[in-house]
Amino acid sequence: MDLWLIILIIVVVVIVGGIILLYNGLQQKRLRIDEAWAQIEVQLKRRWDLIPNLVNTVQGYMGFEQKVLTDVTNARAAAVAAGAQGPVQSAQAENMLTGTLRSLFATVENYPDLKSSTNVLQLQEQLTTTENQISFARQHYNATVLDYNTAIVTIPSNLIAGPLGFTKREFFEAEPAAQAVPTVNLGFPPSGGPTPPAP
Questions:
Q1: Using an 8 Å Cβ cutoff, are 106 and 152 in contact?
Q2: What pLDDT score was predicted for residue 109?
Q3: Domains of the chain, start order
Q4: What are the 10-residue block averages of pLDDT along the chain, 199 residues in total?
Q5: Is the dihedral of CA 107, 53, 122, 38 positive or negative?
Q6: What angle do CA 138, 86, 38 make, to 5 degrees?
Q7: CB half-sphere exposure, 36, CA atoms < 13 A
Q8: What CA–CA distance (Å, rounded) separates 24 from 53?
Q9: Of 2, 24, 125, 199, which residue is least crowded by CB atoms under 10 Å?
Q10: Contacts from 74-77 at CB under 8 Å and sequence distance 24+?
Q11: How far apart (Å, rounded) are the C-alpha atoms in residues 97 and 151?
Q12: Measured between alpha carbons, how far is 93 from 76 in angstroms, rounded to an integer?
């Protein structure tokens, strides 16, 4: 066999092998993003499932605060709907939901009867734990997205990323105000302001 033909075959094999390795690497990074997103969805669904229980528990005490409860319910519905629209829309809706939960917890402090409610305390604790899990899952997801996005724009992966359909992924970003876990201290009386009458 001609030496040049052997060299050509070796070069082709090396090039094809390199493309396969690059493709597999990008594919693995993309799959890791999908897995990380699935973990976020699990935690978001857990939060969505807890909110109706919270609303049902507090609404008997909060007859004068129907708008707060309605805002939470509407924000939850918007978050559920946005969940299938991708990370950007989902993050925006979840940030809004976090804001309404913060308002709800702040309002709860004005109702002394709720301080002794075991159900409210348990739900608040579960929501706080879930918020922490969402934060951890978001950090992991964003790290995998950064790794993937970096790979598809750097040499040599970028040579095959575009032609083979590897496109940029979006981050799941929380607004600064939404990064704080919504908490409420039900063990102490609120400072200032009148206390609404218990129903």
A1: no
A2: 80
A3: 3-178 (1.20.1440.20)
A4: 83 90 94 95 93 85 78 93 88 92 84 75 88 92 96 91 91 65 42 40
A5: negative
A6: 50
A7: 25
A8: 45
A9: 2
A10: 74/100, 75/99, 75/100, 76/48, 76/51, 76/52
A11: 33
A12: 8
Nearest CA-CA partner of 127 in 56, 178, 184: 184
Cα–Cα dist 92/75, whole Å: 11
Note the pLDDT of residue 2. 81
pLDDT at site 64: 61
CA gap 139, 172 in Å, rounded: 9
Amino acid 74 reads N
Q: Tell me the one-letter amino acid at 70.
A: T
Amino acid identity at 11: V
Give a three-class secondary structure readout of the chain: CCHHHHHHHHHHHHHHHHHHHHHHHHHHHHHHHHHHHHHHHHHHHHHHHHHHHHHHHHCCCCCCCHHHHHHHHHHHHHHHHHCCCCHHHHHHHHHHHHHHHHHHHHHHCCCHHHHCCHHHHHHHHHHHHHHHHHHHHHHHHHHHHHHHHHHHHCCCCHHHHCCCCCCCCCCCCCCHHHCCCCCCCCCCCCCCCCCCCCC
